[in-house]
Backbone:
């Protein structure tokens, strides 16, 4: 069982930056691809970014390209989402998730961290 815990959310003004962290407890994430998702009030959860298990491959939703950067540490215990040039529409609960190598669906999810961007 993998337990994921997000941190780093908060309130920031438009144009500002936040760095979200996702830590795994109990085991490393060396065999998992990692993703970040978000859900705004009244909206469905949407994909934000993902990184492969080795860290060599990343992909992003169009609405965050050039502003957000996903990364992971070499020990494969944590994943990060650096968010720059934040906009009010980025306000949402952000979730990290882990997906086993070769899997399609994400197997484990964190509890989420709130990001609020004021205008």
Residues:
């Amino acid at each position: 069982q993998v337990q994921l815990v997000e941190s780093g959310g908060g309130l920031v003004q438009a144009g500002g930056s936040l760095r979200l962290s996702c830590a795994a407890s109990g085991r490393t994430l060396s065999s998992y691809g990692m993703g970040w998702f978000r859900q705004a009030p009244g909206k469905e959860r949407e994909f934000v970014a993902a990184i492969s298990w080795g860290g060599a491959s990343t992909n992003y939703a169009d609405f965050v390209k050039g502003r957000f950067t996903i990364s992971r540490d070499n020990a494969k215990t944590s994943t990060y989402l650096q968010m720059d040039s934040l906009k009010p529409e980025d306000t949402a609960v952000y979730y990290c998730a882990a997906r086993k190598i070769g899997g399609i669906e994400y197997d484990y999810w964190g509890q989420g961290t709130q990001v609020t961007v004021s205008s």
Q: What stands out?
A: DSSP finds no helices and eleven strands in the chain. The chain has a mean pLDDT of 94. The CA atoms of residues 8 and 20 lie 5 Å apart.
